[in-house]
Amino acid sequence: MTPFIAEIIGTMLMILLGNGVVANVVLKGTKGNNSGWIVITTAWALAVFVGVTVAGPISGAHLNPAVTLGLAIAGKFSWELVPSYIAAQMIGALSGAFLVWLFNKDHFAITEDEGAKLACFSTGPAIRKTSSNLISEIIGTFVLVFVIFHFADPSISLHTDSTAKVGLGSVGALPVTLLVWAIGLSLGGTTGYAINPARDLGPRIMHALLPVKGSSDWSYAWIPVAGPVLGATLAALLYGVLN
């Protein structure tokens, strides 16, 4: 398996299980209906665990354009590999979102709430206010990427490129699982903590393509892309100053 394929599969599994738990909680008639935020944040963290476990040994398991960009800005990852990693992450996110829809197709059909159906694909704000929503995504992603820098072991590199340092999978899947769980529990209530442009944009595109009724809320879609990019950039710059 190549790093490109590993990023696709790892991201696909992460989205399948992460967005899958949202579908289980919010769609009508599921066994997990109305089981709550703790279930969602816990399963999302475990979804990251699964993706990192699969992709980590091959690609470093970035699974997130913000992580890839942050590591590149900090000099821990080759800029030459950034486009292919982000492309793989987007493909994986699109694929995972499609599988969530396929798996829950009957429950999508009986759910009247269009907002709940969109939530199975992408994030949205609890209180819609552009500045606050953007700040939430910036801070959440800053925490994610800044802590990941302290996970990454500079002595480990991808077998395909001696200058490309690993990301989420550098010290195993458990630390980043706990990190994502903490972010979800503490910082996730305002916007749903996208903290990952591919995680939000890929499934949002799939929502627009699939026969799921309702708006894809494109007026909000730039926030879970711009916020994570800005947060990752700030984390990389601060890490560079401190180190």
Automatic annotation (TrEMBL):
Topology relative to the membrane: Multi-pass membrane protein
Keyword Cytoplasm attached: no
Organismal lineage: Bacteria, Pseudomonadati, Bacteroidota, Flavobacteriia, Flavobacteriales
The name this protein goes by in its record: MIP family channel protein
Membrane spanning residue stretches: 6-27, 39-62, 82-103, 134-152, 172-196, 217-242
Molecular function, one GO term: glycerol channel activity
Cell compartments where the protein resides: Membrane
Family: Belongs to the MIP/aquaporin (TC 1.A.8) family.
Cellular compartments per GO CC: plasma membrane
Chief location bin: membrane
Keyword annotations from UniProtKB, A to Z: Membrane, Transmembrane, Transmembrane helix, Transport
